[in-house]
Amino acid sequence: TVTEPVTEPVPTAEEEEEEEEEEEEDDGLAGRFLRLEREQSALLRELPPFGEPVSHIYHPLDYAWEPHRDFVRRYCRTPKRVLFLGMNPGPFGMAQTGVPFGEAWHVREWLRVVGGVKKPPSEHPKRPVLGLTCRRAEVS
């Protein structure tokens, strides 16, 4: 389900406290990973804005946090021998779902990830965020 645009990408102190409580329940690997991601996202928000020709920047860990958190809690329970050096989230993958390399159909049907996706504050008209209902597939 896609809801209204995220007007303030930085969670309020109350929201962060609630999320920290939820993540503390899962203080294992997934909880530690989610806290680290929140810290890194905060650092990214501090970067100076990009200039032309960049007109839109999507932050899926802000507006698609719920399915992302569900993905991490489901699949990041034990140590893995994996290293992500960089990710191209793509307009029909992580930009829609919050799940790395995950187009909506696979995230929803194969991985069984759930959660609401909000609209980003500035959405490109040719790249709308439809969340887990997106029918387009990544070509890469």
Automatic annotation (TrEMBL):
UniProt-recorded Gene Ontology molecular function terms: DNA binding; oxidized pyrimidine nucleobase lesion DNA N-glycosylase activity; single-strand selective uracil DNA N-glycosylase activity
Keywords: DNA damage, DNA repair, DNA-binding, Hydrolase
Renumbered residue ranges of the record's region Disordered: 1-31
Protein name according to UniProt: SMUG1 glycosylase
Comp. bias intervals (Acidic residues): 13-28
SUPFAM superfamilies: Uracil-DNA glycosylase-like
Superkingdom: Eukaryota
Keyword Hydrolase: yes
Organism listed in the record: Anhinga rufa (African darter)
Low complexity: bias regions: 1-12
Biological process, per Gene Ontology: base-excision repair
Keyword Lipoprotein: no
